[in-house]
Predict the 3D structure of the following.
Amino acid sequence: MYKLALFPIHIFQNNIRENHILKDELLKKIEDQHNNSKLKIPEGWTTDNLCTSFSYEDLNYSLFGNTRTLFEYNRYVAKFFDLPVEFDFESIWFNHYDNGDWQEEHTHTGNHVFQFPATFSCIHFLKFDPKVHQAPIFVDPYEEVRQSSLEMMSNLTTNRVTPNVREGDIIMFPSYLRHFVPKGIDTPGNPRISIAFNIKVKKYGDTERKNS
């Protein structure tokens, strides 16, 4: 007798060794935006407590459009793939958490930014202390379907997974995968700062993707 796990969903994770360089380039700029500007929560988001640059395309370009930032992201994301890959950055933004901030469960597929959905999404933990900051929690996309059946105890399945991340880590996941950030504790002077971005794969190996 044997059992076979079908249709796995993968999350990819690595640590950016140059994180200290990116912190030097980005941290003060992001803190200045948090302290001096009035960034509004995007329309349609449920959270009432989060500082994000998501809706501000010009600001995000000024923050992240330099070649070093995108070069490092491009280099580390390419390492996640097992064949040569070509992709475009679809959007990039920061999230700043320091006052019990949180974000509701969501995906990165139904965004007005995209003509076609993104292929993968990434989170870079630019500033992160696992002792006081919250990691994102991923949700089983088959959760509702599974409720109509029975999972045996030996399968050890869960419908929520929290990756073990540390400062400098970058994770990549399918853009359809639901996730959220639970409400954290107040950490004045020690914010959790992450940079999120979406990519659209144009070519994987010898295969060109349609709608890219």
